[in-house]
Every structure is written in C-alpha cells, then in structure tokens.
Amino acid sequence: MKFSFYISPLLAALVLCRQTTEANSTDNEPTLPLSTDSAFNFNFLIALSDALTGGSDIAPVLAAAKDLKAGDMASFSQRFYKLANYTKAQAENPHNAGDPINVRDTWFSASQYFRRADFYLHGNWSNPLINSLWTEQTAAFNKAIAALPIPGQRVRIPAKEGNFTIEAIWYAASKNQNRKLPTLVIGNGFDAAQEDSYHYFVAQALARGWNCITYEGPGHPTIRREQNIGFIPEWEHVVTPVVDYILLEKSDMVDKDRLALIGNSWGGFLAARAAAFEPRLAAAILIDGVWDTYAGFSITLSPELMAIYEAGNYTQFDQEVLSQREAGKLSTNSAWALDYGLWAFHTHLPSGLFNQSKQYGLRDVVDKIRMPVFVGDAEFEPTWIGQPKQVADALGDKATLHRFTGTAGYHCQTGAYQELTRTIFCWLNKTLGKMEEKS
Ligand SMILES: *[C@@H]1O[C@H](CO)[C@@H](O)[C@H](O)[C@H]1NC(C)=O
Ligand SMILES: *[C@@H]1O[C@H](CO)[C@@H](O)[C@H](O)[C@H]1NC(C)=O
Ligand SMILES: *[C@@H]1O[C@H](CO)[C@@H](O)[C@H](O)[C@H]1NC(C)=O
Ligand SMILES: *[C@@H]1O[C@H](CO)[C@@H](O)[C@H](O)[C@H]1NC(C)=O
Ligand SMILES: *[C@@H]1O[C@H](CO)[C@@H](O)[C@H](O)[C@H]1NC(C)=O
Ligand SMILES: *[C@@H]1O[C@H](CO)[C@@H](O)[C@H](O)[C@H]1NC(C)=O
Ligand SMILES: *[C@@H]1O[C@H](CO)[C@@H](O)[C@H](O)[C@H]1NC(C)=O
C-alpha cells in the first residue's frame, strides 16, 4: 500500500520535505556546521571531541567532513574505514611502537575511526562489516588501554537475573591498591560503546582521582553482537551486578560511600531505572534526563506516520515506514535511528520497536529513587525535548536540573566535554561533600 493511500500526495510531499529540511538544517545550531546534514555534523563533532583525550586527530576528521556529501551513509562508512586503516597502519609501524604515548593515542584514534565507520551500517543485519569493524575497534582499544599508565582491565560479569554476561572495563585511578577512592559507574544508551565512554568521562575522571568502571548490557554494541540480545527494560539487572563486582573485587580501592552512576544519552533513562533499585549509589548523573522513551522515539517519524501506529494499523505502519526508508525519504537521522533501533532492540518491524519502547519509562519507578540526581538538559536536544524537566519535577528536591546552553547545548554536550565534566565534577564534589558533613 502506498503512503498516498492515507494522505494526499501533496501532503505527503510536504511531510517528507519538512522532515528532510528540518533534520538537515544546521541554521539554528550553535557552531559552524561541518555538513549541511545535521546527523553528519553531529558525528563529526563526536570524532573531533575525542581529540581532547587522544581519540582522534583534528585535520583528518575535518578532511572527512570536506569529502562527504549529506545523506550518503555508505560513503561515510567507507571514508572512516579508510582513515581507520591508515591510522591502524601507523600504530602497527614498528618505528612508532617504542613510545607508549604513540601507541596509546594512535590506537585510541584507530579504534574511534572504526566505530565511526560502523555507525551507519545497521540497515542490513547480514553486513559482515558490522562484526568485522567491531573486532577491529575492540582490538585497537585494547592495545590503547594496555598502554595507559595504569592499564584498563577488561572484566566479564555474569548477570544474576537474565541470561547474559555484562562486559566491563575497570580503570584504577591510583597505583596504590589500598587507597579507597571515589568511583564512577558509567553506561551509555541507544548506540554508544563503552569504548566511547573513555573519551566522554573516564580520562577526565581518572585525572581527578576517580576510579571508573564502564559497562555494557543487553542491546549495547558488543553484547548485541556477541550474545545476540537486544535491550531489556530491567536495567537494574545490569547495574546491580556491576556494583556487586566493584564492592567485592575492588573493595580495597573503592570508597563505598562515594559511588556514583552516570547514564549517557538514552542511558539517562537506563541509569535512572537502575538507580531506583540500587541504594548503594551515593549519586546519579543523567546526561540527559529521559522520562518516556516512546515519546522521544515518536519524534523521529512524521506525525502522519505515528498516527497510523496510534490508530493500531501496525501492518500499514510497518509497510509505510520501511518503504519510506528504502526509498531514501527519511532524513539521515531518522533513517539511522530506525536502522539502528531495529538492530539494537532485536526486531525487524518498526511496530516491534515502538511497542518495546513503551516499556522504557520512569513513571512507575521514579518514586524509588532515593539519592541526589543531576539531571542534564541540552538547548539543542533533538529527541528528549522537555523530558529532563519532567524527570526533575518527579524527583523533587532530590534533583538538580542543569540546562546546558549555547555551544554546550548539543545532545550530550558533544563538542563541549570540558564544560560537561567541569559541571559534573563540581556537582559531585558539592553533593558528596554535603553527605560527608552529615555523617
Ligand atoms: C539533506 O539530506 C538528504 C539526505 O538525508 C540529502 O539527500 C540532501 O542533499 C540534504 N540537503 C542538503 C541541502 O544538504
Ligand atoms: C581496510 O583494510 C581492509 C584489510 O585489512 C580491507 O579489506 C578494506 O577494504 C580496507 N578498507 C578501505 C575503505 O580501504
Ligand atoms: C545484506 O548483506 C548481505 C551480505 O553482504 C547480502 O548478501 C545481502 O544481499 C544484503 N541484503 C540487502 C537487502 O541488501
Ligand atoms: C542462555 O543462552 C545460551 C546462549 O545464548 C543458551 O545456549 C542457553 O540455553 C541459555 N540458557 C537459558 C537458561 O536460557
Ligand atoms: C487504519 O486502517 C483503517 C482500515 O484498515 C483505515 O480505515 C484507517 O483510516 C486507518 N487509519 C489511519 C490513521 O491511517
Ligand atoms: C505491537 O503491539 C500491538 C498491540 O499490542 C500488537 O498487535 C502487534 O502485533 C505488536 N507488534 C509487534 C511487531 O510486536
Ligand atoms: C570541593 O569542595 C570544597 C568545599 O566547597 C572546596 O574547598 C574544594 O576546593 C572542592 N574540590 C574540588 C576538587 O572541586
């Protein structure tokens, strides 16, 4: 069935036009755009941001931005694959290998470029690059963290409820094995990998004397690939075993009264959900606050498409969404969100994705959250618009709502990690300091 069966062709054209121009328009963004395609602009900014912590070099990313045409997802992948191969060859060159800083930064960068190459590939689950690029990014990252002053340690933690194994990386802030330090537990959301977390939070936390453990659960990149499972709503089944692990295995190094959880991007939902069931956390940080996943996902499709879903016409909805995707009528961001969402939630049908998304909301658990919560909000947030305030309102005096604006106003403060981490660590110091005074 054709889209025009439901609404007139003219209206359909307007709807598609609105979606495409809106998602492409970089006019309202706070920085010089690196592409007319706002999705590409955002991806280039991620790659550039990681340069702060050795995860990229700036000119090669700008060169990719110069070469790539808006909307060409396949070329995006090939261009970063080429850069990743080049950087990997530099890392493997024995001439560079005597210097641990060379080894660390070059492998971190190669790893990051392999991740960028993977980003837009998930429309076809059988594409062998989905796994082969990931094997490359993981191997490159392992070489980089082995070259840190205190090497990162890969850990696998069996879940107690559910049939999966959590993938984690432990980073100690001190060589002294008997010094109890504050510790961050860090998790992502919809798409980012725990390898990304090193550049978003870990390097900055280690420099401030915080230990870190990053983790991945079901639906996250490595577990989706290796264990073949999509997201689960019961995120406490992922975070609680991680907290158990550090309190048991790293008890000499972890200050159990200063344990904080960070959820990045849609991980702002996952972390809040887990925090509701995990009283051992002294604080939680949501970058940003997510109240209702279905409401956010709905924004990625046109109101007309969502009306078909809401009316219960699931078969028509699936046909329309998939045929628009195939015909290249969705914006880059909507096309990516659909491709990636179907893969990460392990369903082939758009209605399956939207059905599942309804299970991921805070309404029923928010009352159980007892610790102080930092709730981030971003001026240019495209998906979770208005939701941080909903989370903060529901948490009442436990919440600190912080709106990042201007050049720090991109989703997850991409491009402004200094401002992000400055804000977070000041809040943690103030919040956990107050708790010490009380006790
Ligand atoms: C907007 O993005 C689409 C693909 O999503 C692309 O085909 C089109 O050329 C872009 N428009 C501009 C002005 O860059
Ligand atoms: C990267 O290198 C691999 C071999 O390791 C090769 O198969 C692939 O085609 C290269 N990719 C690009 C874009 O050059
Ligand atoms: C998906 O990828 C596989 C493996 O490369 C290929 O055989 C298949 O034709 C692709 N499917 C589509 C619909 O492009
Ligand atoms: C757990 O998963 C493994 C591998 O996917 C499977 O072989 C096993 O049967 C599962 N066990 C249970 C109890 O579901
Ligand atoms: C849903 O489908 C029915 C017939 O199958 C149709 O009458 C109705 O208009 C559709 N609703 C929407 C919102 O497309
Ligand atoms: C989505 O939910 C509706 C309503 O419960 C159901 O009829 C439909 O089969 C579901 N679709 C999928 C793919 O699970
Ligand atoms: C933590 O807060 C205290 C009290 O306000 C202040 O003296 C100290 O400099 C802060 N430390 C850091 C690392 O921010």
From TrEMBL:
<dbReference type="InterPro" id="IPR050261">
    <property type="entry name" value="FrsA_esterase"/>
</dbReference>
<dbReference type="InterPro" id="IPR000073">
    <property type="entry name" value="AB_hydrolase_1"/>
</dbReference>
<dbReference type="InterPro" id="IPR029058">
    <property type="entry name" value="AB_hydrolase_fold"/>
</dbReference>
<dbReference type="Pfam" id="PF12697">
    <property type="entry name" value="Abhydrolase_6"/>
</dbReference>
<keyword id="KW-0732">Signal</keyword>
<feature type="domain" description="AB hydrolase-1">
    <location>
        <begin position="196"/>
        <end position="321"/>
    </location>
</feature>
<protein>
    <recommendedName>
        <fullName>AB hydrolase-1 domain-containing protein</fullName>
    </recommendedName>
</protein>
<feature type="signal peptide">
    <location>
        <begin position="1"/>
        <end position="23"/>
    </location>
</feature>
<comment type="similarity">
    <text>Belongs to the AB hydrolase superfamily. FUS2 hydrolase family.</text>
</comment>
